[in-house]
Write a structure and sequence with these properties.
Elements: E1 10-18, E2 30-35, E3 39-44, E4 48-51, E5 54-56, E6 64-68, H1 79-89, E7 99-108, E8 111-121, E9 130-140, E10 143-151, H2 155-166, E11 168-169, H3 189-197, E12 200-203, E13 208-211, E14 217-218, H4 220-228, E15 235-242, E16 251-259, H5 261-264, H6 272-289, E17 294-299, E18 302-311, E19 314-323, E20 326-334, H7 338-348, E21 350-351
Parallel strand pairs: 1-10
Antiparallel strand pairs: 1-6, 2-3, 3-11, 4-5, 5-6, 7-8, 8-9, 9-10, 12-13, 13-21, 14-15, 15-16, 16-20, 17-18, 18-19, 19-20
């Protein structure tokens, strides 16, 4: 069986379980968790999440357990080829010298896969010390989930099996679009023509249209500054102003579009939502670092981050969101009726497709 190269995700579980004795008779309890934003699973409750993709027991816990997760793209390989690579890819000493015991076929929760079990005798005296290994490959459409574990307690193998069989795909109920002019197939030429007649400005290259009281033009200064700062992404910027000579009623409107397609090309499609959320989290981190308050929300079917700041002593409101691998930043600055002007600008924004 081969896997489509276009959308493979390798989610690597490297699980180290060490114990000086077999587990007691009490059964293991499990806690609900997620892999990225795409899979739910049950993790042994002795674990806490250190960071995205990493779980560990506390240092005071006698049953040490570490769970690590990574992602990568793979080429066209059969499930057996993926399994063989997984068994041999970890060069840490604890994974060396193991012997094959048995293999299983897996089929549950819409997944198909295979698992292999190994052990290794680490005894150096009269007390037997044996390591037990589990390696598994699951296929979810074009995605691959890779799982590996090692323990010094055989009972932990059953816990790993429970974790594996608890994995389920999270149904991604996308945010429902609130746009009254969008359709699933995008706007037709006739619709675009009508919207243009209604006062919308259309930017097909960047897949949006917007109603604005001034004529948006390419912001060549912002584009030059982006290049000078070494921004690696294709970048568009548009700007216009109203009542330029009035301190009280002057308005500056700016829209920036950053094309991040190159970043998405290196990850599987199933990870797009996770990558997008991380982009917004990173932006929020920058806001927090600069003591700028913000709110999270949604509009036009996407998640948003809104915030206010002073731009050269001009009160300004902004919103950032991501759609189809592009990051959009809308901002408007004025000293009069800022909230209303910002809401009017934001709610007029529509995606073409």
């Amino acid at each position: 069986m081969t896997i489509n190269r276009q959308g493979i995700i390798a989610i690597v579980f490297s699980t180290l379980l060490f114990s000086c004795r077999e587990k007691s008779g009490s059964s293991t309890t499990f806690s609900d968790d997620k892999l990225l934003d795409n899979y739910s699973l049950k993790i042994p409750s002795v674990l806490h999440k250190d960071s995205e993709g990493k779980w560990a027991t506390s240092e005071s816990n006698s049953n040490l357990l570490l769970l690590e997760m990574g992602t990568s793209l793979k080429g066209d390989k059969s499930l057996q080829e993926h399994l063989d690579a997984l068994v041999n890819e970890d060069t840490r000493e604890v994974y060396q010298g193991k012997s094959f015991v048995s293999k299983d076929s897996l089929s549950f929760n819409g997944f198909t896969g295979i698992a292999a079990y190994y052990d290794k005798d680490n005894s150096k005296g009269v007390i037997p010390v044996v390591s037990y290994y589990t390696f598994a490959i699951l296929q979810d459409g074009n995605d691959i989930i890779k799982i590996s574990s090692v323990s010094l307690g055989k009972d932990y193998t059953e816990d790993i099996k429970t974790t594996i069989k608890s994995i389920k795909t999270i149904k991604n109920d996308s945010l429902k679009t609130s746009s009254t002019v969008e359709s699933k197939k995008g706007l037709s030429k006739e619709e675009l023509k009508k919207l243009k007649q209604d006062g919308f400005q259309i930017f097909e290259k960047d897949n949006f249209l917007i109603a604005c009281n001034c004529k948006l033009k390419q912001n060549t200064l912002a584009i030059k500054m982006a290049k000078d700062q070494g921004i690696k992404y294709p970048f568009s910027s548009y700007v216009c102003s109203e009542n330029e000579n009035s301190y009280e009623t002057g308005v500056i409107c700016n829209i920036n579009v950053t094309d991040m397609t190159s970043d998405y090309s290196s990850i599987p499609e199933s990870k797009y939502n996770y990558f997008t959320n991380n982009h917004l989290k990173s932006y929020i981190g920058n806001l927090e670092a600069n003591n700028i308050s913000y709110t999270e929300g949604e509009f036009n079917g996407v998640k948003t981050v809104e915030y206010s700041f002073s731009q050269m002593e001009l009160p300004t409101k902004a919103v950032i969101f991501v759609k189809d691998k592009k990051s959009y930043l809308l901002q408007i600055g004025t000293r009069k009726n800022l909230s209303k002007k910002f809401n009017d600008l934001k709610t007029s924004f529509k995606f073409i497709n």
